[in-house]
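Reminder: ligand-aware prediction takes two inputs, not one.
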Amino acid sequence: MAKSTVEKKNGKATAAKGLDLIGNPKAGRPILGGTATVAMFRSLRLIGVMEGLDDTLGKDSRALVYNSGKHFGGALGLDILRETGPDLGRYVPAVAARLKDLGVGLMSVVQMDLAAGTLTVRVDECITCAGMPNIGKAVCHFEGGMVSGILEAFLGAGKKVAVEESKCWALGDRTCQFEVRIS
Ligand SMILES: [Zn+2]
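Here is what comes back for the chain with zinc ion:
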């Protein structure tokens, strides 16, 4: 029933997943185009998702937002891996270039010790928090999850990547920093 309704309205439905779900915004928005403002993104991300989910759940939504970012990071990581292959020296710069292109932020690696399973990632000009006031709590759980998904896509099955945000504009810092633990 639902399927035939979709087919009648939109022609043949597809089973798009991952980055394919983004579709072709430029084709669908010939006048407005394929970009939106950072203010619009933050309205969705900080007011709609963060405050809206906290309100709906009646508790802190950070795990849900983190998990959303992890799905996105996983899809993005697999897409980048197709370009770079399993070569960390090519993967990290390709991730940074893609995050810059998408306007997510300027990513750099502060320290990396894969033998110890630790990594510190910095994101300047973060799309979610750069320029926002200090509200006494970090807000970039989507980006933390994204870093986790990107790294798990590279490391493959069996590796768990936990990410915690240690610096954030929303904590009064002037950058975002993520502490990564690989186990
Ligand atoms: Zn932040």
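The mean pLDDT is 91. The pocket of zinc ion is lined by residues 126, 128-129, 138-140, 165, 168-170, 176 (CB under 6 Å). We will return to this case in the review session.
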